[in-house]
């Protein structure tokens, strides 16, 4: 017996498109000799549908799509993930379809409420395991987080299941792939029931589902491993009740996994929102260089444009490096000096600025440059039908080192969850594949170039310390005292935590960003705007 693992890239709300994708997978499976196809969690409607699940028109459309899908499955068995409305309650479900009808439906039991997934806001928890027969084997079902629910695994086993099918929508984050397999392995070893885990692939707003579907035999060994970050169909052969091992695709290493996640996140955001391409303000610095590399790898050079907008403080090598970078990647590059606009703005503002009695604030003129650039970028985006990619990294986003309506203007923040330290590692990784980022960009001290000889380190602690403190506080939830106990200087830690919590107002207005860590500064970070604690 062969089971096909349909590692699909579904689009949220595109019910007709998802149904044809699932039918196409069934057709491919048939050709590959597999009579049973398993899809990811919520493959019918995409995941996570969030508050669409509270809309009756959405749920009805899902029910109709499921009914239509069922009538088209006649010579095989399909296990598909979908929302199910029953007796006034909504469930996160997996249905077994055979000979044109639904023969069994399982309801997810382990509903998460962890900041990213709010299953408890939408769904009732299921109460029963679900098994079905196929080719003489008894199969049990689980949906994503269920595979860690030992009582569910045990009761499924006790009902006679010999193999567990897990329909999943588990997003990427650092170190997640091995972690996920370990969690599934624990359940397998606990029950002696091998598992096939089929994960969604593709970007959905901030989330990137990495796929990387796999099978684990009763001994806890990975027998099958599908490629990460790619839509594909895998096949698991079962002989004498055993999974027959097949050559496993290696999992990506830490840095190439992050790079692939960022590319897939950008590609799917642009493609699924039907946007023609992207526009990037290219400064000759490292952040915009990395964003450009990712954008070109994601979309191809013909869908990416760059603009260098020198101000009086932009040094020549920045202009040159931006040119070289754009040339290396073959993108359309423009240079639009902003010195005259900057001068005109200051002249126009002068009477009002001088009327203000207190000493002049240098930030006013610094931010004006960033805002002029934001305005020009948005004008070009309107003209060309493009989306502006913002370039602030996680270190800057955490401490508010960016200008509202300036360099924060844009539709997607590619590096929002990537610390400055990681920015460097990603650049070296990308240059190792082919040297596209000029060495000088990698070697120069980071600078906003908003005043003469400015460097980031004038305003912020060195990035290695800053990033460590941010990671300790944001990702690991550590307190001021706990971070100080790690050996960091108390005043510095206090200053960084203050900056983090004082810049919440900026993050609420920031573009969404692609999540790659346990706790990004988007949906998994929910702090009030008004709070005096730690400020
Ligand atoms: N709690 C609150 N809720 C809502 N709004 C609040 C607020 N507190 C201040 N504000 C408003 O926000 C304004 C301050 O924010 P904003 O105007 O953005 O400016 P601000 O944060 O004062 O300055 C931006 C900083 O980022 C640096 N920067 C800028 C651009 C790029 C880079 C880089 O290297 O990438 C660095 C720049 O050198 C400067 O240090 C206030 O004037 C006030 O109007
Ligand atoms: N001269 C410029 N021309 C075009 N875009 C610019 C210019 N200066 C800044 N930007 C845009 O604003 C963003 C913020 O850049 P800034 O130089 O202030 O700091 P940064 O965080 O060091 O970024 P980078 O490393 O890309 O320079 C840049 O990434 C870029 O998108
Ligand atoms: N869809 C889910 O149930 C997600 C479960 C869990 N957070 C994971 O990422 O694996």
UniProtKB/TrEMBL annotation:
InterPro entries reported for this sequence: C-N_Hydrolase, C-N_Hydrolase_sf, Gln-dep_NAD_synthase, NAD/GMP_synthase, NAD_synthase, Rossmann-like_a/b/a_fold
Pathway(s) it belongs to: Cofactor biosynthesis; NAD(+) biosynthesis; NAD(+) from deamido-NAD(+) (L-Gln route): step 1/1
List of residues binding ATP: 281-288, 391
EC identifiers of the protein: 6.3.5.1
CDD domains: GAT_Gln-NAD-synth, NAD_synthase
Active-site residues, as the UniProt record annotates them: 41 (proton acceptor), 108 (for glutaminase activity), 144 (nucleophile)
GO MF, any single term: NAD+ synthase activity
Binding site for deamido-NAD(+): 367, 396, 506
Record carries keyword NAD: yes
Enzyme class: ligase
Swiss-Prot/TrEMBL catalytic activity: deamido-NAD(+) + L-glutamine + ATP + H2O = L-glutamate + AMP + diphosphate + NAD(+) + H(+)
Source superkingdom: Bacteria
GO cellular component: cytoplasm
Chain positions recorded as L-glutamine binding sites: 170, 176
Any one biological process term the GO annotation gives: NAD+ biosynthetic process
Ranges where the CN hydrolase domain occurs: 1-243
Keywords assigned by UniProt, alphabetized: ATP-binding, Ligase, NAD, Nucleotide-binding
Similarity section: In the C-terminal section; belongs to the NAD synthetase family. Belongs to the NAD synthetase family.
Function field: Catalyzes the ATP-dependent amidation of deamido-NAD to form NAD. Uses L-glutamine as a nitrogen source.
This protein's name: Glutamine-dependent NAD(+) synthetase
Annotated source species: Nitrosomonas halophila
